[in-house]
Amino acid sequence: MKKILITGAAGFLGSHLCERFLKEKFYVIGMDNFITGSLININLLKKYENFKFIDHDVSKYIQIDDPLDYILHFASPASPIDYLKIPIQTLKVGSLGTHNLLGLAKSKNAVILVASTSEVYGDPLVHPQKETYFGNVNPIGPRGVYDESKRFQEALTMAYHRFHGLDTKIVRIFNTYGPRMRLNDGRVLPAFIGQSLRGEDLTIFGNGSQTRSFCYVDDLIEGIYKLLFSDYNYPINIGNPNEISIKDFAHEIISLTGNSNQKIVFKELPENDPLKRKPDIELAKNILGWKPKIQRKEGLRLTYDYFCNLSVQELNKKDHNSFDSYNIYK
Ligand code: NAD
Ligand code: UDP
């Protein structure tokens, strides 16, 4: 049985990845410190015999006694409000955490894939974003803690590849959504659905003309799976190029939930919030033979059903992420 270590296992993407590899009959070691993750996700995975969980902060030295064939490094806050709340941990997990995992991969002679992000392109001046674009990032802005930790992660990963000959992969993930996101993590889709379910106004930041391109989680997981077993070692975009403005997206959520008298309120646009985002996925198509299959209409329905089935306590938790307590407006 091949062994794989997956960091960020209690999070949204990590838990889906664990499940995929468990179903493919890998022995999966999940690692997480629950800083933005949920025990519910780990409890779902515990029903598999071939799953082991280690509660650990990957920014500290990692001790694994088992041999490892593969490592997927997905531990990191990913919601803009999460990384504003915990900026130092965000910088550490992308830098020190990545260093620990690359060192572990080297000592185990394992293939390692790291989760990068479309945020390495910052507020892009090139549209759609191709892997060859170097980006437009403000290193000292509020999002810099995430963007720069991911840019450093990419640089360090390429250095281990070039200098140590390690078999490394880098996936640049564009906005992905689906079941197991935290309802209150502040990202736009759970924010809008949570507001709908609680009968609150939908909050649009700025005038809503900024765009995003949303990928359903199953499509992303398939792309990552193909990348891990490819021999491609440079960064590759995985996302859905179907671009939509946040205002149109709010209207899609209103028609999905059927609350046609729900109001939209406009708040200030957070500083350095990218105005446009859409992946160029030609490389993924050519190298991996991958493209997304799930249309937004279907993906949103599956995600909405998941959130509708959450308990009333989960829905009414008062820990909503909000930008209000951070001085991050222009
Ligand atoms: P998430 O917040 O749901 O999951 C992240 C997980 O990492 C959480 O369970 C958290 O507790 C864990 N974690 C954070 N710091 C840790 C540490 N120091 N040690 C151990 N565990 C730690 O976020 P997600 O959406 O699942 O994102 C997963 C990865 O994918 C991240 O690296 C993120 O940057 C990347 N990514 C996600 C998206 C997206 O749209 N979901 C887009 C781009 C990149
Ligand atoms: N957004 C919004 N209302 C919300 C949450 C987010 O209008 O309640 C906007 C946000 O300003 C950004 C877009 O939706 O322009 C996507 O935000 P998200 O936090 O999901 O991810 P990002 O792509 O910015 O990392």
**Which ions, cofactors or small ligands are bound in this entry?**
nicotinamide-adenine-dinucleotide, uridine-5'-diphosphate
Class based on secondary structure composition and strand pairing: alpha/beta
Report the mean per-residue pLDDT as an integer. Answer: 94
Rg calc: 19 Å
Share of β-strand residues: 15-25%
Shape: globular
Largest sheet: 7 strands, parallel
Task: Kindly report the oligomeric state of this protein.
Answer: single chain
Order of SSEs, N→C? EHEHEEHHEHEEHEEEHEEHEHHH
Q: What does the model show?
A:
The protein is 38% helix and 16% strand. The protein is an alpha/beta fold. The strands form four sheets. It has a seven-stranded parallel beta sheet, with helices on both faces. A two-stranded parallel ribbon has the order 7-10. The protein is globular and about 60 Å long. The mean pLDDT is 94. It binds nicotinamide-adenine-dinucleotide and uridine-5'-diphosphate.
